[in-house]
Amino acid sequence: MKRTRIAFVLVLLCCIVHALPDGWMKPEGDAYTMSVFAQVLNENGVPVVAEGSALAVFDGAGNCRGMAAVRTNAQGVTLFQISVSSDAQEEEGLRLRVYDAARDEVRMLRETLEFRVDTVLPPRDGPVHPRVFHATGVYGLPDGWEKPTGYAYTLSLYAQVARDDGSLVQSSGSTLAVFDAQGKCRGLKEVAVNSQGVTLYRVSVASNQAIGEGLSLKIFDAVTGLVYDIAETLAFVADTAIPQSGGMVAPQVFHLSQVECVLEPGWNAVSFPFTPRLDDQTALLAMKPLGFANGTFERVETLGANCGYWFFAREQTVLLVTKQAIAKNPTFVKGWQCVGVSKEMDVPNGCQAFAWKHGAFEPVHALVPGKTYWLYRER
After folding, report:
1. Which of 2, 118, 172, 225 gives 20 to 30 Å between its CA and that of 97?
2. For 75-98, how does the pLDDT look when each residue is reduced to its tens digit (9 = 90+)?
3. Among 247, 226, 188, 197, which residue's Cα sits nearest to residue 320?
């Protein structure tokens, strides 16, 4: 009886250790699908093949769009074979995470996934030669993100965080944190839905100064697995709330101070709706981007707003670029031009616009920030 009980406990412990994270479940009800045959290499270049490992695909809201456990197929290849679903026939920017059962940890993947209905990735010989993805950092909160102790005063913060497009960073697991000038965490809280049905971050902020201390904010986005700086700062006043009243129903809205610049392998047509700050320009210019001037492409030495640039990347690269003042939409001149826009707009009458997609130029009817377009104006 004792031996049976010990065996049962060991089995139970194994199940607990190798349990998949919350939300990792196969989707239901989406209209379209595509198939992905994948292998994942960890940061040391070793394939993730331990029994119980799983690969999952997520959309921008943090919803699981497909998940599969590692397996060895009929061809003797150990891989992840995932059916990815969507309600749209095309969708960009799907994120991948891998659960490595050998380490009992979740890692982000460097690459993103572009959904195209009824396709297979890779298009040929996927069961024999699967697409290789690469794991990067451990998925989760950075070191030092801990609840503060031993402080004399507190402040209550009721907050939401908005992206550039107005959508909120509110997927399960996202966490807002407050820091002092020395980088020490003064408060953090995971997003939650309160009793009024409002999704927000309710953070208790600590300080040893009753008034006047300036604090900064950062947010961990559970969808991207990245940490973003917040544009606004916080002035501490003990025993108060921000906002002063109604925070549970109408929380204070903060904004990301950084945007992602995602470069896919190969050539990328990119623009910025603002002039990147000098520190960011240094990293971007190190990639030797090209601009269009005087009828030809040439190396650029500085980056401006709403100009079209071409970046070449050997592998998928994600750069965080700090926002500056948003520029006005450009004025289009007669003839061909290589441009971007600051705010989404329709292609004006008398103009034709083309975007770089799937290795070719395709006509478009709307212009969105971050992309480069070849635009022709008749007169």
Report:
1. 118
2. 999 999 999 999 999 988 899 999
3. 226
